[in-house]
């Protein structure tokens, strides 16, 4: 009995504390609402007794609000149809009050919260804003009828870009439907409305096509996958999966409830090897082909001179459009090598038949690709939809109705906007979320490479200054892409997406003129609590900044004058020679700015020690990333000189080439020699040629060096 009364007292205290401790809602969220005006009135009290009242068409929105509040606060709110009551949270539509789609207003008074949308999507985004404003306090969640308060005032908001996209590639690694639904939830949390679903690839076909059942019986499965970055070792694990049309219809419904449109992509005429594995007669050589077990760009593409192939693509697109109501259909067009077409009698006959001529800008085969893309665009447009294509489709004479997705930088988007195309900006430089978030790659999960910290995403300017305001209107949206060659699991997809999606939504929703990264990170801290609540994986780099401390011990070369007889490649030259003796070490990311890269010529550095000094060792560090064509050096030499003019060799070392069985990483190479006294040291480091088991055979390998030590 006594124990029980203690418990009751404890519960009462806890309840009281819960009310005290729960902070009030905070509208300083991501993306930042365009206008927040608070007033001095008392706040609105939100508790389990608050009723959500909805206009009839907004019932699903009311359910979302109730679910979100339950997730965060731990109580379920009743929802009822609105009949003019003057309390609770009211959801209603008022298109006449807004100039724009997807816009909303939230008006908070002590008695009532009124959410008004220009449309149901606007109401949905208002609900996201409220959701993101609520205090997250998992330990107090649901305790004693916890409640919070919403500051009184008005929020008015609307999106800057109508197209706010995220892409996912479930082809390189299959992602199951439950995972894709979580991805859609993540998009909803970030006010995004276009899900670009990449459904066909060399490595796997992912959508059921009833007319061509082999596409999923055979094409959805590969019998192993290359290990690491495209080496010559393979696992033997059968990998694959696909979505039935019924499953996709369910997914489309799930997305639509969240005001997200799903844009299917059938990537053509390249990236089609999985389809060719099923129907080899659709290729130029007739095969045989396998569902590809490697990454990269396959030379085997659809035969553009074969009418059967064209009918196949038309049939596939028509079935895709039967399933997906999307106003946009993505038909790919990227990375289509022309080597097969150049030699294929059918493709060449087609070029003749169409009267295609090469000119000083494009080859006949480029124009043949335009023919294919334009023909398929007509199939899509005949059903009242619009095509999207990657920026390569500008090579040739693609029709102006195609929307261009600019991925190889923004240049394609600029050219396209000038030509009158609508454009979606998705440049790899700022929006490829399959790139590393940190240069400390030893602490990161595997990745394709590249370096894209949140800061860089946040800097992205989607409206190029080169364009006139009229041309800028063609930039209809912004999107980030996640390719999954090196991302085998959904938790890893999440980790790559978050928190970079926060920077992306700031640009999509607001595109702020002034960017304040520190203030942005402060706002991210609240979002992080939601990620934890929903058990989302995310990168923590911006929350727990890393301080660099990797340095070498001072040695004879440290910060001495250094000159290079051969310059590094422009892209990897950074601050030049002095970085080789600055004492600062790079980590595993070759393009972090800490490594100098040389291609096809040696690193040849002369260091002036200032005065004669005795030495017997030179050590340098090189990075190996074979998939990125970066190998260990083939040979290193040390020469010394008293006058900086005449040098004599004191050490030489041959270094055998790394094999696919060897690890990539950072390696130190040391040359020891009989002690000499000299003022000048010359270090020459030569590279290998790529071996015959490498995709780049016939070219030199890169060498990347970050530091030279002398003692
Ligand atoms: C692409 O990244 N190949 C569009
Ligand atoms: Zn052909």
Topology:
Layout: H1 2-21, E1 35-38, E2 44-46, E3 51-54, H2 59-73, E4 78-81, E5 88-93, E6 104-108, E7 112-117, H3 120-133, E8 148-150, E9 153-157, E10 163-168, H4 177-189, E11 194-198, E12 200-201, E13 204-205, H5 214-217, E14 221-223, E15 238-240, H6 245-257, E16 261-268, H7 273-278, H8 307-323, E17 328-332, H9 339-343, H10 345-354, H11 364-381, E18 386-390, E19 403-406, H12 411-419, E20 423-425, H13 428-431, H14 454-459, H15 469-472, E21 475-480, H16 490-497, H17 500-510, H18 517-533, E22 562-564, E23 596-599, E24 603-624, E25 633-641, E26 648-654, E27 665-687, E28 702-710
Parallel strand pairs: 3-4, 3-5, 5-7, 10-11, 10-21, 11-16, 16-17, 17-18, 18-19, 19-20, 20-21
Antiparallel strand pairs: 1-9, 2-8, 6-7, 6-9, 12-13, 14-15, 22-24, 23-28, 24-27, 24-28, 25-26, 25-27
The chain binds acetamide and zinc ion.
Structure, described:
The protein is an alpha/beta fold and 711 residues long. It contains 18 helices and 28 strands. The chain has an eight-stranded parallel β-barrel with strand order 10-11-16-17-18-19-20-21, surrounded by five helices. A seven-stranded mixed sheet has the order 1-9-6-7-5-3-4, covered by helices on one side. Strands 22, 23, 24, 25, 26, 27 and 28 form a seven-stranded antiparallel sheet that branches. Mean pLDDT is 94; it is low at 6-19.
Ligand set: acetamide, zinc ion
Might you state the CATH topology name of the largest domain?
Answer: TIM Barrel
Report Rg.
Answer: 30 Å
Q: Distance N terminus to C terminus?
A: 79 Å
Strand coverage percent: 15-25%
What would the principal axes of the Cα set say about the shape? globular
Percent in helix: 25-40%
């Amino acid at each position: 009995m006594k124990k029980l009364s203690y418990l009751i007292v404890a519960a009462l205290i806890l309840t009281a504390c819960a009310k005290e401790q729960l902070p009030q809602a905070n509208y300083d969220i991501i993306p930042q609402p365009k206008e927040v005006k608070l007033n001095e009135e008392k706040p609105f009290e939100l508790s389990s007794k608050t009723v959500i009242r909805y206009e009839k068409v907004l019932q699903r929105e009311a359910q979302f609000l109730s679910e979100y509040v339950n997730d965060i606060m731990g109580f379920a709110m009743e929802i009822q149809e609105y009949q003019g009551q003057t309390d609770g949270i009211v959801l209603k539509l008022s298109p006449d009050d807004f100039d724009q789609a997807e816009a909303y207003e939230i008006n908070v008074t002590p008695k009532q919260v009124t959410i008004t949308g220009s449309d149901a999507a606007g109401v949905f985004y208002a609900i996201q804003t409220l959701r993101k404003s609520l205090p997250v306090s998992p330990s107090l969640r649901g305790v004693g009828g916890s409640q919070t308060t919403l500051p009184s005032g008005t929020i008015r908001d609307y999106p800057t870009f109508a197209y706010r996209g995220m892409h996912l590639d479930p082809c390189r690694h299959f992602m199951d439907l439950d995972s894709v639904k979580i991805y859609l939830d993540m998009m909803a949390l970030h006010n995004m409305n276009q899900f670009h679903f990449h459904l066909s690839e060399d490595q796997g076909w992912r959508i059921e096509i009833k007319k061509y059942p082999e596409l999923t019986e055979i094409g959805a499965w590969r019998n192993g996958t290359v290990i690491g970055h495209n080496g010559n070792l393979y696992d033997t694990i059968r990998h694959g999966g696909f979505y039935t049309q019924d499953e996709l219809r369910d997914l489309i419904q799930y997305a639509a409830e969240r005001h997200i449109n799903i844009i299917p992509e059938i990537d053509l005429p390249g990236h089609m090897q999985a389809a060719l594995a099923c129907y080899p007669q659709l290729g130029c050589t007739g095969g045989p082909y396998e569902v590809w077990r490697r990454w990269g760009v396959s030379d085997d593409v659809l035969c553009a001179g074969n009418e059967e192939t064209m009918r196949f693509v038309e049939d596939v697109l028509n079935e895709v459009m039967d399933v997906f109501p999307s106003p946009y259909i993505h038909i790919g067009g990227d990375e289509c090598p022309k080597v097969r077409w150049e030699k294929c009698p059918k493709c060449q006959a087609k070029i003749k038949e169409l009267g295609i001529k090469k000119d000083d800008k494009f080859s006949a085969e480029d124009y043949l690709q335009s023919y294919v893309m334009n023909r398929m665009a007509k199939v899509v447009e005949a059903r009242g939809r619009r095509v999207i294509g990657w920026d390569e489709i500008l090579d040739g004479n693609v029709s102006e109705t195609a929307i261009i997705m600019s991925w190889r930088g923004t240049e394609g988007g600029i050219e396209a906007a000038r030509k009158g195309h609508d454009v979606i900006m998705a440049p790899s430089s700022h929006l490829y979320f399959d790139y590393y978030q940190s240069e400390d790659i030893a602490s990161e999960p595997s990745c394709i490479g590249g370096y894209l910290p949140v800061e860089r995403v946040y800097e992205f300017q989607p409206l190029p200054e080169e364009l006139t305001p009229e041309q800028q209107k063609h930039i209809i949206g912004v999107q980030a892409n996640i390719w999954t060659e090196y991302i085998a699991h959904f938790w890893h997809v999440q980790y790559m997406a978050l928190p970079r999606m926060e920077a992306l939504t700031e640009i999509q929703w607001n595109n702020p003129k002034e960017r304040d990264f520190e203030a942005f990170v402060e706002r991210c801290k609240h979002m992080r609590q939601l990620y934890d609540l929903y058990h989302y994986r995310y990168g923590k780099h911006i929350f727990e900044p890393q301080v660099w401390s990797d340095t070498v011990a001072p040695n004879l070369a440290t910060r001495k004058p250094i000159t290079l007889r051969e310059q590094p490649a422009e892209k990897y030259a950074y601050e030049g020679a002095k970085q080789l003796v600055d004492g600062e070490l790079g980590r595993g990311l070759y393009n972090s700015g800490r490594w100098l890269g040389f291609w096809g010529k040696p690193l040849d550095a002369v260091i002036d020690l200032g005065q004669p000094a005795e030495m017997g060792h030179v050590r340098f560090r090189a990075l190996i990333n074979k998939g990125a064509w970066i190998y260990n050096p083939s040979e290193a030499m040390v020469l010394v000189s008293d006058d900086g003019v005449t040098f004599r060799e004191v050490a030489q070392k041959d270094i055998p080439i790394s094999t696919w069985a060897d690890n990539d990483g950072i390696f130190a190479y040391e040359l020891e020699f009989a002690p000499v006294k000299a003022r000048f040291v010359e270090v020459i480091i030569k590279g290998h040629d790529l071996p015959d088991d490498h995709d780049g055979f016939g070219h030199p390998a890169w060498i990347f060096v970050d530091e030279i030590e002398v003692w």
